[in-house]
Amino acid sequence: MKRKSAEICLILGFFLSFIRHVSTLSITVNELECVYENVLSEGDTISGNFVIMDQEIFWPNDHLGLEFTVTSSQGNIVHSLKGTSGDKFEFKAPGRGIYQFCFKNPSSTPEAVSFYIHVGHIPNEKDLAKDEHLNPISVKIAELRQALASVTAEQRYLKARESQHRYSYTLLLS
């Protein structure tokens, strides 16, 4: 009985050790706003999404949208988008360190942005406990955790988009 309890505690502790960092923010982008996130290991999965929540005026056809740029701790741009009202992203960190997530608003209208980010880590087998029965389970748990984070990010993105559309619809009716 003690061995089974110890195994459960080990698996639970192992599972919780993969939860690196999750952030959900609401920011107002006037000109340039940046958010910083520490990535502890090369190869960590960085995923997230953003969407403009409310627009004081409807965007005309020539509206430039937001620019979104992710810069690694080495100063390299690892992801960028231009002219968007929201999107999802996911990539492997090319290195460890502080990553910079910047929103640039080329228009004069401030934009409220809902921003979600998740940094996750799936260990390789050499980093796991050496018990042969726990290694495959631990890897699967880490993969499931990453998949769950991806599904959660997708749900947040869809909810924010739905809220954005609902807001636009109510403005049309008024």
TrEMBL record:
<feature type="signal peptide">
    <location>
        <begin position="1"/>
        <end position="24"/>
    </location>
</feature>
<protein>
    <recommendedName>
        <fullName>GOLD domain-containing protein</fullName>
    </recommendedName>
</protein>
<dbReference type="InterPro" id="IPR015720">
    <property type="entry name" value="Emp24-like"/>
</dbReference>
<keyword id="KW-1133">Transmembrane helix</keyword>
<dbReference type="GO" id="GO:0016020">
    <property type="term" value="C:membrane"/>
</dbReference>
<keyword id="KW-0732">Signal</keyword>
<dbReference type="Pfam" id="PF01105">
    <property type="entry name" value="EMP24_GP25L"/>
</dbReference>
<feature type="domain" description="GOLD">
    <location>
        <begin position="32"/>
        <end position="119"/>
    </location>
</feature>
<keyword id="KW-0472">Membrane</keyword>
<dbReference type="InterPro" id="IPR009038">
    <property type="entry name" value="GOLD_dom"/>
</dbReference>
<comment type="similarity">
    <text>Belongs to the EMP24/GP25L family.</text>
</comment>
<keyword id="KW-0812">Transmembrane</keyword>
<dbReference type="GO" id="GO:0012505">
    <property type="term" value="C:endomembrane system"/>
</dbReference>
<keyword id="KW-0175">Coiled coil</keyword>
<dbReference type="InterPro" id="IPR036598">
    <property type="entry name" value="GOLD_dom_sf"/>
</dbReference>
